[in-house]
Amino acid sequence: MESRPIILFVDDDPMLLASTRRRFASLADDWELHFAESGQMALEISDRVMPTAVVTDMRMPDMDGAVLLTEIQRRVPDSIRIILSGQTNGEELAQAHVVAHTILRKPCETETICNLLRQCFSMRQRLANPTIRKLIASNASIPASPTAISEILVLLRAPEMSIDHLTMVIRSDLGLYAYIIKLINSSHYGMRSRIHDIDQAIMLLGVSALRAIFCGLKLANSLSPKIEEHLCADVFDGGMRLAHRVLRLANHHGKSKLFADDCYIAALFQDFGQLVFAACFGNEYTQLLARAKASGESLSKLEQVAYQCTHAVAGAYLLTLWSFSPQIVECICQHEDTVDAISREPRTVEEFVRHASQNEVRSQ
Questions:
Q1: What span, in angstroms and rounded, lies between the C-alpha atoms of 99 and 142?
Q2: What span, in angstroms and rounded, lies between the C-alpha atoms of 81 and 204?
Q3: What is the rounded end-to-end Cα distance, in angstroms, of the chain?
Q4: If you average pLDDT over residues 333-345, what whole number do you get?
Q5: Cα–Cα nearest to 10, from 58, 49, 48
Q6: Best CA proximity match to 56, nearest among 102, 21, 11, 100
Q7: How large is the average pLDDT for residues 33-38?
Q8: What's the pLDDT tens digit per position in 84-108?
Q9: 3 state SS of 186
Q10: Is the model's pTM score more than 0.90?
Q11: Would strands 53-57 and 80-85 be described as parallel, antiparallel, or unpaired?
């Protein structure tokens, strides 16, 4: 087990940095805290202490937050990387998404930062294998390439999002446009009449679901060179099928839109940790999957023995880094032994919603 977490805060404004030091002083017994007034100072501290997490301002002279985190990622690849952004333009946001796991609006409440860090540290402890942690931290950042998916991820995670801008970006990429129209008209959604309008499709899918879908697509694309193609398709398609069934069941039980969206996202990412394991361990993990399928043994138990954690925990850590809600993360962790990844029996969907309902009650 790791020692207490090491957090490095970076801000070029001495008054704001002093305020941060005061705000987090009460946590000094639980966390080892360091503070830097520049990117260069942050790198010097980083080389000395190897931080578990770095929380940095975006706009700084000489070395901005994105450049700093790029170097931090190279030196401490399994670090948790968070940017605090004030009046940041679209281009700067795109640069930040290359290396940051989460971008928080500045000024940001101390409680918000603390809660996110606590969730990340808790899931990190459960993800005992350092090889898996390093791979996830390297691929959980959202690349800002000139593709439509990357632009959409920037929009979806921006503090103030324009639906019109989102629609415009999707319209600019015919392949993505066709994918969303195909998705909304698939049997999973059970539309009575075919949807042709992209604005209507976006409204029906919802922003939360879109964000999860695009994060999943981006992760699958980044890992696909390291794993077998059919596994990517199986995990993504299987997650999509389960997500839609869970969504229908949540709606059937009269659950709120927020609750239904949480169920959808958790179900979608239920097995995404399998992609991480396959990228880490290659044929060894493929054989483990085949063994579980052939013998009926519990996949999670086989994973725990082989890697000291399960693929569900790996998927939950991904969503934690992306600042999805604790209810979604816990739903994935609790659900790992109840979902049969092979048969997807209907009873597992009922079980899924039951777990989600328990989490909803505990969070109130």
A1: 7
A2: 33
A3: 31
A4: 46
A5: 58
A6: 11
A7: 96
A8: 887 655 566 667 777 888 888 788 8
A9: coil
A10: no
A11: parallel
| Residue 324 to residue 102: CA distance in whole angstroms | 10
CA dist., res. 270 & res. 300, Å (int): 12
Distances, alpha carbon 179 to alpha carbons 53, 174, 185, 218, 242, in Å: 36, 8, 10, 14, 19
Q: Are 12 and 38 in contact (CB under 8 A)?
A: yes
139 within 8 A of 222, measured Cβ to Cβ: yes
φ and ψ of 102, to 5 deg: -140, 140
Q: Is the pLDDT of residue 143 over 50?
A: no
The domain limits of the chain are 6-126, 206-363
Note the CATH architecture for domain 206-363: Orthogonal Bundle (1.10)
What token pair was written down for 162?
Answer: 């324009």
Higher confidence at residue 49 or residue 262?
49
Side-chain-facing half-sphere of 333: CA atoms under 13 Å:
22
**Tokens 């394991």 — which residue?**
277
Residue partners of 30: CB distance under 8 A and separation at least 6: 4, 5
Instruction: Write out the H or E segment, with its range, that includes residue 168.
Output: helix 163-171
Q: 6-126 adopts what CATH topology? A: Rossmann fold (3.40.50)
Position of tokens 């190279």? 74
The CA-atom distances, in angstroms, between 81 and each of 98, 100, 129, 181, 347 are 11, 5, 19, 34, 39
Per DSSP, the three-state class of 104 is: strand
DSSP category for residue 225: G
Please name which of 313, 218, 336, 211 lies closest in space to residue 265, comparing C-alpha atoms: 211
pLDDT tens string 118-128: 999 999 998 88
Q: Where are the alpha helices (DSSP H) in 269-310?
A: 273-281, 283-295, 299-307
In terms of Cβ atoms closer than 10 Å to its own Cβ (0-12, 13-18, 19+), residue 109 is exposed
Is pLDDT at 73 greater than 90 in this prediction? yes
Pairwise pLDDT comparison (168 vs 24), residue with the higher score: 24
